[in-house]
Every structure is written in structure tokens, then in C-alpha cells.
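Weekend entry, working from home. Most of the wet-lab plans are on hold until the incubator is repaired, so I used the time to fold the two sequences that have been sitting in the queue since the last round of cloning. Logging both here for the record. First:
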Amino acid sequence: MSQKMFSSEVEGGKFLGSIDVIQDAYRAISQTSSTYQLDTSPSGIKVLAFNCLSDYTIRFRNGEGLVSSDKHKVVDFISTKVNPNLSINKAAVELFELHFKELSELSNQLINGQLVVTGCGLGGYLAILYTLLHQHYADLEESNGSKTAKRPICITFGSPLIESGGHTAFEDQEAILAVLDAMVTQNAESYQMHDYSKELGSIRKTALYHGASKFNESNLSPLRAGIVFQFQEIGALNDISNDLIEKMEKKQTRMIIKSRNVYEPTKKLNDMKIILTYIEWYMKTRRLTGGYYDSYKDAKSATEIMGKNEAIRHQLNLNQYWKKTVEENDLVPQKEGAKLRKRWLYAGTNYRRIVEPLDIADHYKRGKNKLHGG
């Protein structure tokens, strides 16, 4: 059965708006008189709102330059082995640095509860930095076996990390450039922070399914309608060509299909555990014939060769999985010394215990005399 494809960021945002989360976040910002303030929404959820001192906002609005993250160790939780340095706004990182100690303590207090983090303009920048910090602490808690750590929702208005107009964001790089080009003229002289009260009120009154029917074209697919809707939301639809929309539709179709074929991490780990049991069975059945190391290295009979070939197939699958897992872990912001989650740690230890002797046997089978540890 074929499935419909959607580009639903705007509709998803309207859904959040319909259940008061966005309104609660914006209300918290308007009631915040300090750099940050923790409140409880009417629904009982903690809301951490960031505001900005005027001098920092002026510095940010005046386009104060970017600085390297390696000069500000308070954001080293964002760095990765693959991308050790990143550029970050000087005013934002200095303000974050000023409050880092108390924000770290606050994160530890809030790690097990539901939390919405929000901010507007430069405050949105700080909200994103804090959310990444909170995510980092949640990773550390989970790696130590905690099952109670919760991750926050981050809602920003006019966030400079997402989009200067504050309405929506595109993952497609070509679309981002086209949108910025279309908006540069209309935003060039606007330094006033946008008031979102009208939009939020409109979201509450708008039906969630309202969208594609607003367009003149009645034959729009849900995916194409979603893309067009996003351009319309930021007032750039008239400046965007149909060719670009068509290219975006094709690219997002490929991305959606690809994402549907990706294993959920826990399921993939369980699949690898099943494969590992086959090699464990191979190991146990070779104990009476000199052990699985020698049987694997010096297989001679048809039965031994068949068993070895089956073990090799499973060995290759495991090697590829753990190589990819390590590479992906290197891409994740994580301080040196932080642990993997225990499930992966135990599974990886079992993998090395069982498969490593087979790799050593292969090494010597190929006539190599020295083995270099990795």
C-alpha cells in the first residue's frame, strides 16, 4: 500500500500551537525580566524562558562577529571528533558563558522532568545553547544507566540559528539560500523584534487541515503543498520559482524514502545480538575439535569450511555494524570520557570478546606475523 508523503513542519507547528505549548512559551518570554526565568505553565509543565539585556541585544543586532568555539570551553559539549570547532556569535556565547555555572546546576535539577526551553531573538540563541547542554547531561545520565532523564522541547521565536524572520526553517540548503535572497530586501531595514501575538492567535483559530485548499492549484500533492505552504508562511512564495519547488519535492521524496529504510537503533542492536548468537553457537560446537580459533583458522573438511563461511558472513555484518556505530558516535557531541549507553557498551564488549579471536585468526592465516592493537 502506497503512503502519502508530507512536508509538515508548518502544520506540526500549528498542532503545537493548538495545544497551548507555543502560547505558553511566548507568554513566558513576555513575562521574563531577567536573562532567564523558570516558570510553570497552566498545564503544569516547567518553562525556561530566555530574555536578553539590551546591550547584548544591540551587539547582536549590530552584527558582532563570530568567534571560534575553542576559545570558549563552555560550549565544548557541542564539539565532535569530526568537527572539533565551530563558529558562534560572540555576544551570545559571552552571555551564555556569564550564566553557565547556574544554568548547569539548573539543568541537573530539571533533568528528570518535562521542560520547555524558549527565547526570542538572541534569547532564542541562548535557548538553543541551553537545550544542547541539557541534552548533553541527559546523554550522560542515560550512559550511566538512568531511565528517568527527559529531553526538553525547544521553541524559539526569530532564532538566529534557524531563520532571521522567525517563521519557519528549511533543511534544504538551496531553499535556504533562495529564501534569504528573497527576504533580504524586505528585512534590510527592520531591526524591531517581531511581535508574534497576532500569529499565535491566528494559529488557535485556524483548522489543522487548512493548507492545501488555500492554493489555486487543486492537484497539489500533500508533499508539494507543504513546501509551497512554507514559502507562503514567510512571504517568499512569489519570489520562488516552480523549478526550485519541483527540485525540493524530488529531494524530499528521496529523503523520506531513505529515512523509511533506516533501522530504529534499538531494533538494529537487537538484530546484531541475534547474529552474535550464531557465532556463539559456532564457538561452542567447535570446543571438541580443538576450539573455534583453530577450527576457524585451519578449516579443512567440508563441514568445517561450511561452518567457517557461515561465521564469516555473520562476522562481516557485525564488523560493519560496529564500525558504523563508532563512526556515528564520533559525530555526536560528547565530552571525552563520556560512556556509551550501557546496552551498547555491553553488546560491544561481547562483540569484541567473541569476534576478535576470529579477526586474529584471519590475520595470521594471511601469513602476517605482527598484530597491531587498535
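Second, folded right after the first finished:
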Amino acid sequence: METVAIKSATDSYTQITTKSETALKQPANQLEDWLAILTQTYSDHPSQSLAKVIDYYINRILQDSDITCDGDKQCQYYAMRKYWHWQSQQH
């Protein structure tokens, strides 16, 4: 009986942990999806204000802990941030 209760508690904990991890990863994925939409919009209709919004979202993504764990992806976002910050300063 105790083994069944422990297994049930372990299974419940695993489900909760998995759901929590998925919920935490969703915002980063949503930000990346939104960034893709913004950059596509910029390619169709470039503007300084849109470049500022893109720069803002890149900074938000860089603050995410998942990105900081992935060195290659982090380097790509830093390069993007530099470019979009420059774009947002153009007149």
C-alpha cells in the first residue's frame, strides 16, 4: 500500500514539474514567435519605431534564463540586439 502511495505522489510531482517547466518555456517561445512577426513586418514596412520595438523584444529574450544557458543562441541574440539597437537610432 505504501509503495502505491509513493508511486502516486511521485507521478503527481512529475506531472506538476513537467507542466511548470512547459509553462516557463512558453513565454520565451512566444517572444521568439512575436519577434519573427515583428521582423517580417519590418521587412515589409521599415520604421524607426518598429526597430525600437524589435530591440525591446530582443532584450526581453536575452533576459530569459533558457537563452543564457545556450551560448550559441545567446551570441546570436547579442548580435541581433546590436544591429536592431543601431537600426532604432537611425533617422
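Plan for Monday: verify the second prediction. Confidence is low (pLDDT under 50) at residues 17-24.
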